[in-house]
Amino acid sequence: MMSIVAIVGRPNVGKSTFFNRLIQRREAIVDAVSGVTRDRHYGKSDWNGKEFSVIDTGGYVKGSDDVFEAEIDKQVELAIDEADAIIFMVEVEAGVTGMDEEVARLLRKSKKPVFLAVNKVDNGQRAQDAVEFYSLGFENFYTISSINGSGSGELLDDLIKALPEQEQKTEDALPRFAVVGRPNAGKSSFINALIGEERYIVTDIAGTTRDSIDTKYNRFGFEFNLVDTAGIRKKRKVKEDLEFYSVMRSVRAIEHSDVIILVFDAERGFDGQVQKIFWLAHRNNKGVVILANKWDLIEKDTKSAKEFETYIRRQCEPFTDVPIVFMSVLNKQRIFKAIETAVEVYENRSKRIKTSELNDTLLPIIDRTPPPQHKGKYVKIKYITQLPTPHPCFAFFANLPQYIKDPYKRYLENQLRKEFDFNGVPVTVYIRKK
After folding, report:
1. Calpha distance 84→284 (Å, rounded)
2. Are 260 and 287 in contact (CB under 8 A)?
3. What do you get for the CA distance between the two ends of the chain, in Å?
């Protein structure tokens, strides 16, 4: 499984700048996704070939000291609870503050590896001033500059050594379908309805992550693991922040699954947080099925479903080739249609197209609508092949690949979808030199 690194600390120490540097450092990085509350952010990074998820927990001071203490406690304890390692960021200009000591006190209670990063150290004098932060009591001590990146290499070298080894997916591992969404959308009810009515359940298995449970499930002659991310975390001492947990559960589940079943409350709508979870799935190149739950509670006419579907697809642009199922878990309406659709999406994601079929089908279409000329030069696509990747990726070999722009790449993707049915699955198009 992919490890999680949390960046914590008081406001204005440069956490977000360092976060942005991390997620932009390698080409393999997926994009960052803004969090659901204030300025939390979630992204993926890698260092020396080891991938990990990154959380920028944000920081804020407002109102009374009691408000500050409650917010800092909640942020840091949530980060400790979710993370495999923690970067505790402070800054040299202000020196050790009471806020720093409060965060340090909470971190010292944890058994997680903590890496103390003293930011804004960009000259010799500041390096000397940084020594006072040894008083916070952390062995792993680094002086860095978020803006220019100095010192971050040593920090990251040691950080990845402390992360647990990633589990490799075995070839015979069952497909994993993760049920994700914001709190109270009906995720638990959906899974309970499936388990309660359908008796093909084999067993419950402890998940590969701390916050999910896999249920081995068989329907339509297809066996898979159904990953429940809802309602299974103990509250412990943490003051529950349901929005934070819903995103973190989704981050973990999405990274370790093949198909994402995104459940949302139709009464509440396809809102910002639901969209963020959708884009997490897309950026991780997972299959997606969207389930509009509680459809029975919506006042509707003959056009309601079509209009609502159009609205959802508009929010998902440009990835609009996604199945949408309107269901009611309470009334057991279309719950098995949802699973049947997820199986179809998995098969689309696993689909392999023969090279001969690709070329015989697409090259005539490309000849009829070739890439635009560039400064009088004709761009010719000569060959197509599917790459050996977990999700559909296609290489189009051309004489002048640098002149094929994004609009024509989208045209090629649309033709792939039209001819070979990749409904619910991100498709990546690469243009390479022939």
Report:
1. 20
2. yes
3. 37
Give the pTM: 0.67
Task: Of 131, 132, 10, 5, give the one whose Cα is nearest residue 62.
Answer: 10
Query: Tokens 């009691």 correspond to what residue?
Result: 66
Chain segment 282-293, per-residue pLDDT in tens = 988 999 999 999
Q: Are 42 and 53 in contact (CB under 8 A)?
A: yes
The secondary structure of 34-50 as a DSSP string is: E-SSTT-EEEEEEETTE
What is the share, in percent, of the chain residues with pLDDT greater than 90?
A: 41
Give the helix/strand (H/E) hosting 274: helix 272-283
**Tokens standing for residue 181:** 């969404």
Strand-pair category, 324-326 with 287-293: parallel
- The residue type of 19 is F
Indicate the angle between helix axes 65-82 and 242-255, nearest 10 degrees: 20
- Cα–Cα distance measured from residue 160 to residue 152, given in angstroms and rounded to the nearest whole number: 12
Query: What angle do helix axes 242-255 and 272-283 make, rounded to 10 degrees?
Result: 20
> Rounded to the nearest 10 degrees, how much is the dihedral formed by the CA atoms of 386, 390, 392, 396?
-40
